[in-house]
Amino acid sequence: MVEIVFAVLASTFSLFLSLTVYRARPDAFLNRTLATAFLFFGAWIACSFCHLLLVDPSPYFVTRMYRICYFLVVLATGFLFLFALGFLRDGRPEKRTIRIMAAAILSLALLNLTGLTLRRATYHAGVYTQKNGPLYAVFVFTEAVLGGGALLCLEMKRRRSRGTDRARVTYILAGFGVYIPLAILLALVLPGLMERDVTTIYAYYLSVLPLGCTAYALLKHRLLDVRLAVRYSFTYLVAILIFGLPLLSLYLAFSSLWRYDSRVYAALSASILALAVTLTPAVLRWSGRLASRLFFAGLYDEVELLHRSSETIMQQEDVRRGVAEAAVLVCRRLGLRELTAVVPDTVTEGRGTWLMGARWEGDGPKGFVEVARDNSPLYGLREETILFEDRGSATEDSRERAARAELASTGMVAAIPLWGPGGVQGTLLVGEKPNRLALDPLDLKFLEDFARRIGLFVEHYLLSFRLISKVEELTRARDLLEESDRFKTDIINLTSHEFRTPLTVLQGFAGFLAERFDDLKDEEKKDFLDYMLQACRRLVRLVDEFYIVSLLKSGKVSPSPARHALSDIFEDAVRSLEERGESRVRVMLEEGDKEIYVDRRLLLLCLRHLLENALRYSEPGTPVVLSGGSGKGGTWITVKDHGEGIPPEVVEGMFEPFTRLEETDKHKEGIGLGLYIVRLTAEMLGMSIRVDSRPGEGSTFGLHLPPSGPLGVAQAPRPGLQPAGGVPEAPSEGMEMFI
Questions:
Q1: Looking at residue 208, what is its pLDDT?
Q2: Given this model, what pLDDT does residue 340 score?
Q3: Could you tell me which of 161, 157, 150, 170 has the C-alpha nearest to residue 220?
Q4: What residues have CB less than 8 Å from 306, skipping those under 6 apart?
């Protein structure tokens, strides 16, 4: 009776371990192989005591049952060896190796179902006897090789591991290391040597050693973390015991009373079904809460936590802020002191090293987003997870030792790569827990999944940055093309209009002279030639302006600064005007002629167009004042006219190409490129432009050239509203514009 009770308990516990391990991670190789090994192990124990259920079992029955036992024990030992081999290789051996070994194990196991291993077995009056076959020694040797190989792999894994991993392997090795040699000796070797088997029963009793040690490693040291499976199994078991079984008993009791009335029986069945559907979710929730209080109160559902973390990141426009809030959630749930995602400067493309995460401060974790400029060894990209608890491993290199030393100095216990679809995006630095240094396998697996999710979001965020940058570049290129197209269109329109007038004059007077040259007086011929000469000059001026704009916009002209006297530049600028315009210009300079460091050609071009513009938009006979000076703040130059002033609504656009003030233009000449040339030359010289205009009082254009050294001129400012520095302050009334 004792043997039967032990067999039921041991086999049930083994099957429970098998189910628990498998449900923890059904897709993992280690879980599947260990669960299968415990499944066959439990079946072996159950089959070994089946003959005790019969008073006098026949030799045929005993022989068949023990052949099945031999078959099951080979499979159990074989899958234990596959588990140990996969555990040694950190996951899974090669597929080819698995297929070959699985085929060999299955062949050796099937061999035990024949009479080649066990010819005959009997059980009578409490005495078990057996007659071995010719290949019984092969069976014993197979068990020794598979069991010894499993122990060897576990020992190699123990030597390579540190911290929690070493403790897990030690407990498994202790259980199976004692059991496998004794089981082979007591259940295989000694029964084959003796006529009566009196030792096998002790091998079954010893099965509590591997079962107990493995269970301890599963629960205490989180081997293949089965804590969620234990909790879920308890949840469903409680729900069945307190709700399922009573409901089924109630249904059977009432159905026996009204089994002859079909309508009552149908109504009863429908009512029980409705009650089950209605109350089952509530019962499962209640039993789940009970299980969470009784088993592993600090445990969490990694799938649900990962889903909540992802939602938190997606709710923020800035992925860095989203990662920080998700890190707060993870730190609080896992009890981590710190969790920091690092994206190095090489990935952010010059935006600095991003640090985003959470730190435990006071009563809870607080999120943070920072940009670091230093270059810590932990900020580099790596493809493998580094754990501080694995320090001192025989396989680690100098780089890993340096990384673990940096982890220790910063209070971190792990560095996990942030994998994205395009590769590693950074590193997730994990702080230690308040109560221990090592991370649970469930924690580590979740953090690796969390790191991959962060890598995905960071890569998409950076790709959106790059996409927006490319869109902005394309938009600027489109704007430039549109501006160039408009410029070409304006050139064609203005050319056809502005060039037509002088060409018409030339054609008309040339034709008139050709037809009536002999009839005209000399004075008339001279007048006609003067008109033609003015038309030619106008054509030359138009062509010159187009050519100058073309040179300035193409970048073919670059400043060549040198020391020049301001008075000489003013004199050359006035001399470049026509005779009637030259007489209207008044030059005013501060006392003491000073030199300025500037490109003479570009400044003369700028002043000539400003003076021509002032002469054109002011009454004939009124003076145009050209003044200037220099000091510590730089050089200032002003051109003041006494015209009608510039309307406020056109001031901002008058430096654009082909802009003319038709209402105030006294000569109706030009194509609107003069002030545009002024703007282009001012940008190249690094000058700012100030416009002060008052209706009825004229306009003042001021230029300010910042001080510069002998190595070059100041950088050109972007067109826009800017203060002009050394230009004299304007009165409080009137319209002012700074470029």
A1: 62
A2: 92
A3: 170
A4: 446, 449, 450, 453
